[in-house]
Amino acid sequence: MCGIVGYVGRSEAAPILLDGLRRLEYRGYDSAGIAIVNGDRIETRKCAGRIANLGSLMAENPPAGHFGISHTRWATHGKPTDQNAHPHFDATGKLALVHNGVIENYQALKDQLIRDGDKNFSSDTDTEVLAHLIGKLYEDSATTDTRPDGSAPANGGAPSYSKKARLVDAVRAALRQVIGTYGIALVHRDIPDFIVGARRGSPLVLGVGKNENFLASDVSAIVAHTRDAVYLNDFDVVAVERDRFEISSVAGEAGSYELRKVEFGDTDIKKGDYPHFMLKEIFEQSGSVRDALRGRLSHEECTAKLGGLNMSAAQLRDVGRVVLTGCGTALHAAMVGEYLIEALAQIPTEVEYASEFRHRNSPMTRDTLVFAISQSGETADTLGALRESKRKGYRTLGICNNVASTIARESDGGVYMHAGPEIGVAATKSFTSQVTILTAIGLLLGRMRHLSPAQGTGIIETLEALPGQIDQVLKLSDQTKAIAKKYASVNGMLFFGRQFNFPVALEAALKMKEITYLFAEGHPSAELKHGIIALVRSDLPSVFIAPDDAVFSKNVNNIEQVRARKGPVIAVTSGEGVGKLKKIADDVIEIPVAPECVTPILSVIPLQLLAYHLAVELGLDVDKPRNLAKSVTVE
Ligand code: G6P
To answer: Closest by alpha carbon to 349, among 326, 323, 312?
Structure first.
C-alpha cells in the first residue's frame, strides 16, 4: 500500500531509487515519482501509471544527485494522476515528501494552513498538506528562532541550532498534529545529504550501509545494497545522513534501536526463469511448507514444538477458546484453521474478519487465545484487531511471514512462516504455509489434551509427506493450463467444497477474482440448492473440490444437481473419487490421497494454477492485478 524508498550516499541516487521502487511495486502501482536533490535544485519526475512509465521519463531526462526520495502509489486521496503522484512539496517548493498512509485530519490541517495564507496547493492529496505543514513550521522557526512548538531551542536559537535540527523539530511538531498513519521520507533543498523519515502505522526500515544509508517501506527494496536493517517503531523519527543516523521519537525523546540481519538476499526477490512471481511462488510451495515445519515436529514427543508461542505447557493446556483473525487469503487460511483446531484439539475456535473484529465488542472468555494471521505482518485491519485484543488483555499471537513486521513485533509471541519473500500480489505460498502452521498448532494443542501419541505420530507423518505430495500436484500445471484454455471465454466461475475444503472454495474464488477479474464465488457445496443453483447455466463452470473423503458422496450429489442443469463441472478429487467423477464431470484434476485435514494444502494448488493460467491466457498482468496492493496498510 504505497512504497517509499530514500537514499543518501556517494552513488547516483536515481538508479538505486528506481530499482528500489521496482521491488516495492507490489505495494501499489497506480503512479510513481522521485525527487533528487542536485545542488540547489530538486529534480522531480513523476507520472501516473506503472514504475516502467517513471523509468521511461527518467531515461529521457536522467536526474542527477546523491540523495533523494521516491514513491510508488496506491491511491487513497485523489485520483492516480501525474499531479497527485508523490513526491509532494511544501509552499516554498524546497521540501519534498513521500508518504505511505492516510492523514485523517488533512482537511482541518489544510483549512488552517489556508487561513494562515497558504494558497499553494496543487493536488488533492492528504500528503501535500503534511508537506506544507512541515514546510511552514520549518520556515517559521527560521524567522522566529524558536522551535516549531514555540519553545526556545536548547542553545537559545544560536546558529548551531542547525537547519538539520530545525527540520527534524518541524517534522516532530507537524506529526504531533496529525491524526492518521504515516511512513514518510523527506528532503530539503537547502540541507545537503540529509533525509528525515518517520513512521506511525505504516512500515519503515532503515538500511545501514557503508557511507550510504537507505529508507524503505520494506527491506526487499534495499537488500541488494545492505542486509543490515533497523526496523523503525511507531512514533520514531530518524535523521539519516551518509555515515550516521539518529533515531528519536515524535515527542522528542532519544530513541534506541536494534540492528538486525535480513534473512534473505537479492536472488530471493528475483523471478529467475519464471515468467511471473506468482508462478515462481506456486512452485516454491513444497520448499515453503517444508520450511514452515523445519525443526518444529518432535517424533519423540509425537507433537509440534513451537517455542515462539512463548507459552508454558500449563498455559497451552488451559486455552479454552481460540480466535483466528486476518484478511483476504489469511482469513481463508484461518477458516481452515478453525476446522483443524476443532478437529485435532477440540477447542472451540472462531474466525473473525480482522476488519470487523477490531470494531465490535465480541464476547470473549478469559481463556481465549487470539491468533493474528498475516503474510506481511502489516495489514492495518489485522494489526488493529491485534491491538484491540491486547488492549483487552488477551494473549495474542502472530502467524507472520515478514520477520520483524509490526504484527510480529507487537504480538506476545507467534510462529514465523519462513516462506521467503512473496511478491506476487495474489497470495499463494503464504496460504499453504499458514495452513501448515495451523495444523502444527492443532497438533500441539491436541497433544495437550486427548490426542494419543500414536495419533500425534500419524499427523507428523502426514505433515512430513506433504512436500513430496506438493511436488506431485505441481505436475498438474499443464493440465490446469489446458483447462484454462478451454474455459478462457467464460464470464465467471463458481467454486464449491465441504468441510476442510469449503475455505479452499473461497480461496480459489478469490484467486480467480484477483487476477482474472472474472466474477467468482465460493460456497459450501450444500448451499448450492439454497440459491446459488439459480446461477447455474451452460456457460458458467462450477469447480468442485471433492477429495475422496467422508463427504465425497454428498459432493457427488451436488455435482449431479449442477449437471442436471447443464452446468459444466471441473472436479478436484483423489483416490477412488477419480474414477467416479470422470463419469460425471467435464474435467477431473487428481490430487494425491491424504488425510482430510491436510487436503486443503493439496487441493488449493491446482486452483492457484488454474487462476494463474487463465489470467495469462487472458493477457492480464498476473503479478500486479488492477486496483490491488499486496500489503494493505490503510483501513
Ligand atoms: C491484501 C492482499 C491479499 C492478502 C490480504 C492480507 O488484500 O491483496 O492477497 O491476502 O491483503 O494480507 P496479509 O499480508 O495480512 O496476509
So the answer is: 323
